[in-house]
Design a protein that fits this description.
Layout lengths: L13 E7 L3 H18 L4 H23 L1 E6 L2 E4 L2 E4 L3 E7 L1 H8 L8 E3 L7 E6 L8 E5 L3 H13 L1
Parallel strand pairs: 6-8
Antiparallel strand pairs: 1-2, 2-3, 3-4, 5-7, 7-8
Helix pairs in contact: 1-2
Length: 160
């Protein structure tokens, strides 16, 4: 039996879950790196050419998938961004940043002490002040394709 849409989610269910993946163009570039590896090895014969294709393509794909993918979740009483788990009690009000503000906070307004899950291919973001006086981190910057939903989930989880 399926739970009804109005039933509250269990406390451990994510209230927000987003995976930021690399754009398709990065995968095209990874394929082209594989082709270039094959072309470099072509003068040595067919077998080395296939080896160059497989090796260069695999290395490029590993690079794209390892950097290009990160997960942001709001779960129970925590914000989970990449490998970090931040208690919501240590966070202030979330602020949605449009593309221009997000660029500013990624560049000239950025504080080197801030915790950033930043992806240049995602234009919008959410910035949340860290209110814990024992933590030297001034704020958390999170790239998001749906920053309004992320901010709403943070607000909802904080008020609960």
């Amino acid at each position: 039996m399926q739970p009804s849409a109005s039933a509250p989610a269990p406390a451990s269910a994510p209230q927000f879950d987003e995976r930021l993946t690399a754009p398709r163009s990065w995968w095209v570039i990874a394929a082209l790196v594989g082709v270039s590896g094959a072309l470099i090895m072509l003068p040595l014969g067919t077998l080395p050419m296939l080896g160059g294709l497989i090796l260069a393509g695999a290395l490029a794909a590993v690079g794209v998938s390892s950097y290009g993918s990160v997960r942001i979740r709001v779960v129970a009483d925590s914000l989970v961004a990449g490998d970090a788990r931040i208690p919501l009690s240590a966070l202030g009000e979330p602020r949605v940043l449009d593309a221009e503000d997000a660029r500013a906070w990624r560049t000239y307004k950025a504080d080197p002490r801030a915790f950033m899950v930043m992806r240049g291919y995602v234009p919008e973001a959410v910035r949340v002040e860290v209110t814990d006086p024992a933590d030297p981190t001034p704020y958390v910057y999170l790239s998001s394709r749906d920053p309004k939903a992320l901010a709403a989930a943070l607000e909802k989880a904080r008020s609960a």
